[in-house]
Amino acid sequence: MTRFTAVIASAVLSIGLASAQGYPAKPVRIVVPYPAGGASDTLARLLGAKLNEVLGQSVIVDNRAGANGNLGADYVAKSAPDGHTLLLAGLDALSISPSLYKLPFDPIRDFAPVTMVAYSPHLLVVHPSLPVKTVKELIALTKSRPGELNFAVPGIGSAPHLAGVVFETQAGIKWTYVPYKGLADATTGLLAGQVHVTFGAMLATYPHVSSGKLKLLAVSSAKRIGAIPTTPTVAEAGLPGFETGTWQGLLAPAGTPREIIGRLSGDASRILNTAEMKKNLSNGGAEVYTMTPQQLEIWFRSEVDKWAKVVRAANLTASP
To answer: What would the pLDDT profile of 101-141 be if each residue is shown by its tens digit?
Structure first.
């Protein structure tokens, strides 16, 4: 390393340390790229309330919905890389988007991973008026009425959408996809009887099951979950090998100083791994699942590659 290069590197490090020492200098904004009421929104509000105490600054949840989360993600990607604007999103949907959309940002290049937050399995739910009680009955009914049953899609290319596509393919059925702006809107449509069926993140969907407003057929995880032990998995109820779910992660704009990323990652991980937070998430069917920034970057790159293969194999496009 030349003396000039060493001086530059030292200056950059000093700037980063100074930024970290003065952080946060103003309220921190957590952008959720979906409408209020979904799984990411719920997690952002739970995490934000605790970060507010740790950081000593207000933490604001900002819902910026649209384009399967891409509008809010683009906003964060183009925000100042100072740790005051963060993204909490379903990383499964974000990792699918590059294969379906011409994005104004690069999900890998334009973000600095902070930590994974949680995993929530999907619930296969139907409107109570649908005369089915099991996965096999749903498949049989759909086969008898090809294309007549409407599947609520909380964004084209979202994880629930692809879960529906995989289910449709494995079961040999055909239903009509009805797109919404997010999980909350899709759930509202299902509650109103505008659509018949969907896969919803458990954290946001289960309260409607508990109230009797939606009928639960199965859970998408590999094994039954403790919160609803009598509910079978999709795999054991008729489609062997079926498994899907929603991952939420915390990201910052690329270029955010490593010291700030490190602090945010450490603070968020400690909060998420407390007994209180684990209990809150477990009661809703979600599992705390934290990673270091480096681990999340490796995982996210592998997910982008994986979903690209799925999208190509299914010949999916950005319209239903």
So the answer is: 899 999 999 999 999 999 889 999 999 999 999 999 999 99
**What CATH class does 3-119+246-314 carry?**
alpha beta
Q: Quote the longest CA-to-CA distance of the chain.
A: 76
CATH architecture of 121-237: 3-Layer(aba) Sandwich (3.40)
Q: What pLDDT, in 10s, does the model give residues 244-259?
A: 888 999 999 999 999 9
Q: Tell which phi-psi region holds residue 132, choosing left (phi > 0), alpha (psi between -120 and 50) or beta.
A: beta
Question: Are 218 and 135 a contacting pair, CB within 8 Å?
Answer: yes
Q: What is the pLDDT of residue 2?
A: 52
Helix (H, G, I), strand (E, B) or coil at 204: helix
Secondary structure percentages of the chain, helix, strand, coil, to 5: 45, 20, 35
Using the structure block, give the residue that is written with the tokens 């409607």: 208
Dist. CA 232–CA 264, nearest whole Å: 37
Tens-digit pLDDT profile for residues 10-28: 444 445 455 577 899 999 9
How many other CB atoms are there within 10 angstroms of residue 24's CB atom? 18
CB-based contacts of 253: which residues, under 8 Å, 6+ apart?
76, 77, 78, 79, 80, 81, 85, 110, 111, 112
122-133: burial string, b at 16+ Cβ within 10 Å, e else = bbbbbbeebebe
- Cα 221 to the center of its chain, rounded Å: 15
pTM: 0.79
Determine phi and psi for 151, rounding to 5 degrees: -105, 120
Do the domains spanning 3-119+246-314 and 121-237 agree at the CATH topology level?
yes
The domain segmentation of the chain, as residue ranges, is 3-119+246-314, 121-237
